[in-house]
Amino acid sequence: MKIVIAADSFKGSLSSPQVVHRIARGLSAVLPEAQLVCLPIADGGEGTVEAFATAAGGTLHTVPVLDPLGREISAQYCILPDGSAVIEMAQASGLPLLKPHELDPLAASTYGTGQLIRHALDQGCRRFIVGVGGSATTDGGSGMAQALGVRMLDKEGRPLPPGGGALSRLERIDCQHMDPRLRESTFLVASDVDNVLCGPTGAAAVYGPQKGAKQQDIPLLDAALAHYGALLKEQLGADVSDRPGAGAAGGLGAGLMAFCQASLHSGIETVLDLFHFDTHVADADLVITGEGRIDFQSARGKVPYGVTRRTKSIRDIPVVAIVGCVGQGAEAMYEHGLDAIIPINDGTLTIEESIARAGELIEDTAFNLFHRLKTEGISFGSVY
């Protein structure tokens, strides 16, 4: 029996390689004879650099950057054997870098992501794959642009402070000193979402709350992004606000499109191709995927959706998701072909306990599921 394990990270607790390893351990204890193919997957968010380095044998570079609140930290990016740079914005501008009480979407900046791009430019990279999931920011990529020489000025000609809140005072976007190497480069945005920049499905409305935005902050951020988008069109000729993916990572998608002429690609599809997923699934009997929280957002291009969709296009075999928790709207994944959702928390643990014990719970869940199937003689095709 061949089982492909292609899971995302459980954000806040385990990386995707750790999740895949724990699932494999649980399965091996029940089915030691099974052939397990372990693929630590990412969708453009946390773990993307590690996934590319694992699959392609890239070289990791660690550099000092500023975190979302302007504090110096170390972040990694990867240079692939062909010279392409893989940038994971979550490394420099991501939610995991901040404690819950530090979340501040009005002030958080993508400046550190721009620093990663600048360092890769210094290494001679001219092709970029930028994963834009897991951000703590809602600044439209303005911080990234500032790190690359763009000036965001108010009506007095003074540089704006960091963060999306300040964009409401933006008067002029000065690209005179923008790094000229950007014009020699190509950028591919690996994104797990297709949100536009503003409005009901925009960056602030959909993702602002998880970044700490209070109810009164959301209309302020949305208006600031709308103003920013209008100036990108008026002053740079970059009509990006309504393009799918512009709202990714708090609008970093829009910033990359406007300043780097980036093209948008599905993060999960890009990573699946890198891992030669189709070849692995061609003779598989079962696929196991997973993520920390499966909900209505999962069907917008996250790992379980991408893995399920790709699997079902190749072979009609069961796809099971082992997840940290199940949120509202998760049932939509069944309409896309997912056969079963198995949470690691049976409802007796708090979220904090579940996160702290995620490794053992994932392993136990995999073990118990397949032990039951084996002892009760249930076929894997009937797992759902």
Kindly summarize this structure in a few lines.
The protein has 384 residues and is α/β, with parallel strands linked by helices. It is 36% helix and 19% strand.
Number of strands: 13
Spans with pLDDT under 50 lasting ≥5 residues? none
Based on Cα principal axes, name the global outline: globular
Work out the radius of gyration.
Answer: 21 Å
Q: What is the share of helical residues?
A: 25-40%
Instruction: Compute the separation of the termini in Å.
Output: 18 Å
Structural class from helices and strands?
Answer: alpha/beta
In what range is the share of β-strand residues? 15-25%
The main pleated sheet reads as: 6 strands, mixed
The overall pLDDT, averaged over residues, is 92
User: How do the strands line up in the largest sheet?
Assistant: 3-4-5-6-9-10
**Tally of DSSP helical segments:** 14
Order of helix and strand elements from N to C terminus: EHEHEEEHHEHEEEHHHEHHEHEHEHH
Polypeptide structure, described:
- This protein has 384 residues and is an alpha/beta fold.
- It has helices at residues 16-30, 48-56, 89-93, 111-122, 142-147, 203-207, 217-236, 248-260, 267-274, 277-281, 303-314, 332-335, 351-356, 358-375, and strands at 2-7, 35-40, 59-66, 72-79, 85-88, 127-131, 151-153, 172-174, 186-191, 263-266, 286-294, 319-326, 340-343.
- The strands form 3 sheets. The chain has a 6-stranded mixed beta sheet with strand order 3-4-5-6-9-10, with helices on both faces. It has a 5-stranded parallel beta sheet with strand order 2-1-11-12-13.
- A hairpin with a 5-residue loop joins strand 4 (72-79) and strand 5 (85-88).
- The two termini are 18 Å apart.
